[in-house]
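Sample pair:
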Amino acid sequence: MRVLAAGDHFITPELIAAALLDQLDPDGLDIGELTLPWPHEPFGPVDGVSEASGTEEQLIEALLDAEVCVTQTAPFTERVFAARPELRMVAVARDGPVNVDLVAAARAGVAVSFAPGRNAVAAAEFTIGMMLAAMRRIPTAHAELRAGRWPGDLSAYQEAGGELDGATVGLIGYGAVGRIVARVLRAFGARVLIADPYTDGEAARADGVEPVKLDELLVRSEIVSLHARLTAETRHLLDAGRLARMRPGAVLVNTASGGLLDYAPLPEALRTGRLGALALDVYDIEPPPADWPLHSAPNVVTTPHLAGATRQTAHRAAAVTAAEVGRYARGERLHHLANPEVTEGSKR
């Protein structure tokens, strides 16, 4: 069986190949390697799929005779599936196969799997760091000191930040990441509210968090953190109207998806103090343009889509996808099938 390890500079082809060799008999296994440019070059849309890296031509060439491909960002479009009818499975090493045209895959009879929860720990830990950085103005203090200035005014009452201990923190979305964030926040002594229509309320209360409606969460929370999955339903979930319902001076954190948040009203909300601070790891346009209004807005912490980027995440993603390839090769049921209309197991 020929497998293409279409890695990048985070989940490398070497990591994928090593994970595959843990799952498959090397006899009769041919692993090809392709290195895509992400994250050295930002990913983007490619012919109907999003967050993809590399070109269709590059992928089509590398897929020659491949039955399976393991990837994080390769653009699996209708054109790619049409050009490589021998392909039977794509294992995507991320939480969702946004770089795969699932309709085209199903039409071609290609099973598509993914790796849910691969970066949950990394994203949750990063979220807590972003909360603390925004509340305590750590990046501002660091920049001032590096520039040779002693920012003593940051210790003045009007400029001083708050504490997580005793704070009310609202989490919009209570999936794998949200649950870990909640657990850590409770260890800090925070009260945690959650808004998630798909979460069982009794189970959430057993976790020590309080399920509420979204509007109530916005009114009560001193810190609001986004953890929902981006869908047509959740796009711009926090728009200008909902942002206006937040407590004056609240902190807003988004490490989940740029599309969940309407970025247009944020600069004015910060300048008026309606928002006390903003921490962003994801954006509506990546990377943000040089004239992006939030570059000059006060009390903003920004990072370049780093929340899930740990070495442990890369190893975990490679292992989860390789395990799915092992199940495929043995004709077993796939655990994380994105297009169940395709017959599971080996088609060889």
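Residues 278 and 300 are 5 Å apart (CA to CA).
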